[in-house]
Write a structure and sequence with these properties.
Length: 151
């Protein structure tokens, strides 16, 4: 099963981050499955993937807190649990990089991301869409607000 690469969050920045993560995951899978497997390249791709995941999670968690998402704490715990397990698997892979170890890391991350996106991120995306900040005098540049008043 492959993860859907379209909009999950109804938020362009978060959806772009998801796309970048999925591209990282695809690159890692392709490297691990390549007949000319390169442990050095696989390690670099895995490091980029984990870095992008961590950055995305922090961004998503900030938005959940800013919008007072009621399940932010449990959602954040899922992120933390994933990163803990992913780092442990990564250490195992880096200690003896092989296509088998890389496949284990890929399978875990792919399955987790599919389940998390379908079960939790789509719910957060719907919440974000329902709680998008509405334009007010406080969050719209003065020129735009003045123009709106003249219309």
């Amino acid at each position: 099963m492959e993860l859907y690469k379209g909009s999950v969050f109804n938020n362009a920045d978060l959806d772009d981050e998801h796309t970048r993560i999925l591209n990282n995951l695809d690159q890692f899978k392709n490297c691990v499955n390549d007949i000319y497997f390169s442990p050095k390249l696989a390690a670099a791709l895995l490091a980029a993937l984990l870095s992008n995941l961590d950055e995305h999670f922090r961004h998503e968690e900030t938005l959940m807190n800013e919008t007072r998402y009621s399940h932010a704490e449990s959602h954040t715990m899922e992120h933390e649990n994933l990163m803990t397990t992913a780092r442990e698997l990564s250490k195992g892979f880096l200690s003896g990089p092989s296509q088998i170890e890389g496949g284990i890391v890929y399978d875990f991350l792919n399955e987790w991301l599919i389940n998390h996106s379908v079960r939790a991120d789509c719910v957060v995306g719907n919440y974000f869409q329902a709680h998008q900040e509405r334009p007010t005098q406080d969050n719209v540049p003065d020129q735009v607000y003045a123009f709106a008043l003249q219309a």
